[in-house]
Amino acid sequence: MSNPLQDMEKPDAIFAIGTNMTECHPVAATGLKKALTKGAKLIVADPRKTRLAELAHLHLPIRVGSDVALLLAMAHVIVQQGLEDREFIAQRCAHFPEFKKHLKEFTPAWAAEICEVPAIDIEQAAILYGSAKLGAIYYTLGITEHICGVDNVQSLCNLALLTGNLGKEGTGINPMRGQNNIQGAGDCGAVPNNYPGFQPVTDEAFQRKFAEFYQQPAMDLGKQMTKVTALNLCGAEEHGIHAMLIDGENTVVTDPDKNHCKKALESLDHLVVIDIFLTETAQMADIVLPASAWGETDGVQANTERRVQRLRAAVPPHGESQPDWWIIAEIAKRLGTPGFEFQSAKEVFNELCHLSPIYKGLNWDNIGDGNYQWPVPEEGHPGTPILHQNEFKDAKPGLFKNINYRDPAEVIDQDFPIWLTTGRRLQAYHTRTQTGRASGMNYLLAEETLEVHPDDAKEWNLHDGQIAKIASRRGEIEIKVETTTRSPRGTVFTSFSFADTQINILTGSGYDPITQTAELKVCPIRITPVS
Amino acid sequence: MISDPHTSVAAQPSLTIDGQSATFTQGETIYQIASRLQKNIPTLCYDDRLQAFGSCRLCIVEIEGMRNPVASCTTEARDGMIIQTAPPKIEQMRKTLLELVASENRQVNIDPLRGLASQELSTLVNKYGARNGRFAGKTSGTSNEQDANPFILRDYDQCISCYRCVRVCAEQEGDYAISIANRGFQTQITTEFNNDLRDSDCTFCGQCVQTCPTGALADKKALRSQPLPEPIKKTRTVCPYCAVGCSIDLMTKGDKIVGAQPALDGPANKGALCIKGQFTYDFIQHEDRLKKPLIKQPDGSFKEVEWDEALTKAAQGFAKARQKHGRRSIYGIASGRAPHEAAYSMQKFIRASFGTHHIDNCSRA
Predict the structure, then answer these.
(1) A–B CB contacts, 8 A cutoff, strictly below
(2) CATH class of residue range A5-176
(3) Under an 8 A CB cutoff, do B341 and A345 touch?
(4) Which of A114, A149, B231, B255 is the most buried (most CB within 10 A)?
């Protein structure tokens, strides 16, 4: 997030797109609800009538995967109506004339055709956001889990640059991260393209820095590989991946195209999984190493607003389980890798701080319960709750990007005439390896359903509570139908949380070409009743 | 004296509380200023995250020049006020008020497992010696024993109609699931159409439980550990689910996790939680947890082994892959759930051992 969570009460206009915040980030949503009581206007773009959509002044139930068209048309309206922040654009942005020219053809009427919402609503959304003194954008995976995820994010950046809604209290571009420490995994360099602290692996200076510190003279310059590519190369004769270490991820259930993923892991010579349960992924491993869980280990995490927080052990580790870092270090030592003589979580964290410019001013003892939001470039620095305040990163201008709309990887046709979109539910977390084992949760949510609009159900010969078979180009599953007006006509929804309705057998139609994020939010399917 | 134009702005308003002077900002209430001065004025209907309500009257103070005491939580401070927070007359009034409240509330000892604020009434009643039965007789609120939900006990026999639950649900959560039926001694905290919570707009965030000053709304799940003899210990940590990063206190008795309570000073959540942070901590001590390292046998089953054997085998497998297929044949996937130390070690393991960038995490899924 460019802005802190506490800013959520402050905007005059909130544009929430692809975020089911009241279910996925309920505590953050309380901030938005407070903003509404203070008079803020809420625009929600989401195919489904979520709780957040119910609270909205303007709900745009756009067709799944049509976000870029909507955002282009909103930018078009903002420019056409002269709502752009000329001073901000002049002082801090570049490529505006080209962008303005690019926008010309993308009228609300053009977008209305693609998004399947009225042009007047698109215009209204643009005016509400564009004329607000403080406008803030919030988004989640509904923006990123598309083949055009990067385009979607850059389109949102265009809107924020256009209206000068960056670098100020109560504004910003604010992705709500999904997992407790998914921000931290990136901060720590557990990504192919960056060393810790977002230092690119394609930069020779950083290559030298880490080759030296890690005592690895053969450190690659670039040659990064994402998990998606790695899974495609598992077992391959040329450039193949043959051994894998997975820490705490139920890959075969969370990832798209489950059958492909399973085959990939099966073709490995050596699979080591570190986890707290014998997950479906762990069951495929040659060796399973028991990690101590949250509540049993000391550590650090970073939340969605870049706040660096201490985790503390409250109970002893279960059985003979050990902290993840200890397990990884012990394997490294046995491989003869130097630099793993850590005695405590504190030593590991402090090494990270030493190597990461955005954590330079942090250490185990000064972070407290979340005293700082990174970057903290030196000790004594107060941290950075709001990014981009006076300048963008490295003093570069904010660039407008000319984005074009693209159809999803697969679109509905005669064989697969229904849009499926997937997501999460309040009472279940991911694959339920944790919430499914918490007592009482089944009282509220015991099984998964497929949400279908009642009129569609009638047309497709389905009724509430009936079992239906749903199929995509990759596979099929059976699932119980729930008729609800939360779903728009022609689009159905379910979550990926339940083991007996593994929706990711169906998904996986395509990937963003830059990030290789899967298009989990769009999948054409067909539905047939099971008698 | 010639006034310096740079300091000619109006001086900040100030007042005197129990002989101590203090400046304040326009709009602050007497209670807020007194709290800052650590005056410890008693309250029952107050939760500083909510709009002041002024119903319990315990926070009354005496202001020089005013005939009657005023509720400090709803009275804005004015320049020059001279305030007494606990003169004998006020303390006597508080005792009488508490005697009235205690006459409605039927239980003397409230288990702290019930909720974060559950001790507020009993602590005050004990402090003022107010449970003397002087007003014993009529009571209000009837417990709802039908609601079978496993999380929230609806023990309205303990209710004193402070409406903190109703207000936290409306103001803090924006859910409006809890409402008030009837008036006077018939007052009843309830839901729309008197439904079970599951059939209302309740999201089971537990905020009503945590703000209840009497334990009338209580953490049913935590209360299952009431029989354990050990004292409750609290450990400050952060919720393990989404990335909002809500601070919580994990409650333990001995080595058992018995509950979670929100941290009111949590920088990201300011005392708020959702159902996951509030009620789903117990996966940690589930019987399905792995206790020992496992190695797969030729028949596909797993055998429990000692750490050294498992770690050596794990390392040998990577060494073999490196030897047979080269250093680029190995890949690592880090967790978005585990702490920094895990993610940092994973990427270091791959980069330092093999010199590649064959490392990723779950954010692409």
Answers:
(1) 490
(2) alpha beta
(3) yes
(4) A149
